[in-house]
Records
---
Amino acid sequence: MNPRILAALATATAAVVAVAGCQSGTGGDQQDPEYPTKRITFLSGFEPGGGIDLAINTTMKALQSDRIVTVPMAIDHLPGGSGLVAAAKLGRSPKDTDDILQLTSISSLTASLQKPGDYQLTDLAPVALLYQEYSTMYVKADSDLKTVADVAAKLKADPASLTFAGGTLGSPSNLALARFTTAAGVTFDKVSYLPLSGGETELALLGGNADVISGGLESMEFVKDGKFRALAISSSERLDAAPDVPTYTEAGFDVVQGSWRGVFAPPTMPAHALEFWYDALGKAVRTQAFQDAAKQYGWQVSYQSGDEFKAFLDKESADLKTVLDQVGLIK
C-alpha cells in the first residue's frame, strides 16, 4: 500500500482513539455500554411509609416504566440518624461500588450540621436534586383549632397545652413548626414536640397523641377522607396540588420552609456510572409517571446534577446553619 495512505490511516486511527478516550468519562474511567448489569438498590435512611419511600418508589417507577433502567431495583431501609446511618453504609462501600444509591432529603444535611460524625452527607458523591416540597400543618377534622391563628393563640396562652409532632429534629417539617412557634412568640424549647419518622406522624394525630402535626402533602389523603384539616403550608405561595390551603405568610406568620429530595452515590462510584445516573435521573423526572406524581403531591421539580447539585448543597449548608442556630438546634 502507498506509504502516504498508510500514514494517513495511522493518523486517523490515532485521532479516533484519542476522541474515544476523551469521551470515556472523567479520570480516565472507561465507559461501560452495558451498565447497569445487576440489581440497583436505593437506600432509605428512614422508616417505611414516609416521604422518602414515596420518592424512591416514584423514581423507580419512572425509571422502569420508560425502560430507562432495565435491571431490577429495590429499597433497603436503614433508619437512624436522619439518614446518616444509611450515609455511613454508602460511605464505607468498597471502591468502585456502582449498584447502590441513597435517596434522601434536607433532613440528612441538617443532621450532618447538628451532629458531625464519621460520615456526613457531604462526604458522598452528589448525583441529582430531584424536586422540592413543602410542609403542611394538620389537625384532626373535629379539632377546635380552625385556623393557624387559633393554634398560635392557644400556644401563646399556654405552650404546654398543645403537643406537636413532625419529623426528626432538624427535618423540614420540624423546622417549619419551629419557625411557626417562633413567629407566634414562643421559643421552640418551650414546645412539646414528638420527633417521629415514616408514617408515625399521621398515626400520632389519629391516635390523639398529638394535637398538631407537620407533614407532607401526601397526608392530604386524610383531609379528603374527612379525618384531618389542613391549616397552612410552608411554601411562599399556594400550590396547585392544594389550592384551598393558605400559606403561613397569608395567615400572618413569616414562615417559608422547603425540602428537597436528592440522590447520592458512594464517594468512589466510577465516573461512567455517575454519568449514567446524571442522565437517567434527568430523564426520569421528565416522564409522565413522575410528572403525574409531582402534580398530585405538590412537588416542584427542579432537577440539578453533579457539580450544579454540589454548589446547591454548599449554599444550602450555609443557609441552614443560620436557621438551625436561630431555633436552637446548633450552638
---
Amino acid sequence: MVGVWAEAQRQQQRQQEAQARYLRDQDRDRRAYQRELARSQREQKAAYREQREAEARRRTRELDARVEVLQGLLAAGCRAPAFRASALTRVERVEPFAPGPLAQPVPMPDPGRYEAQGGGWTAG
C-alpha cells in the first residue's frame, strides 16, 4: 500500500515537473519570438531611416544643382548690358486709310415698302 502511494506521489511529481518544463519552454519560446520581433522592427526602422536619408541626400544634390544653375543665370544677367525701354520701341509705318467701296454709303430701305396691307386679319 505504501508502495502504491509512493508511486502515485512520484507520478504526480513527474507530471508537475513536466508541466513546469512545458511552461518554461513556452515562456522561453515567447521571449525568443518577442526578441526576434523587436530585432526585425529595429532592422525595418533602420532600413526606413537609411532610405529617408538617401532620399534627403538625393534631393539636396538636386537642389544644390538647381541653385548653381540659378546663380549662373543671375551672374550672366548681371553681366548683360543695362536694359532700356527704348530698345523695345520701333518705328511703324502706317498706310493711310483707304476705305475702297465702303466709302460709298449704302442706300437706306424705303419704309413704304414695309407698311401693312389692308384686308388682312385685324382686330376689331
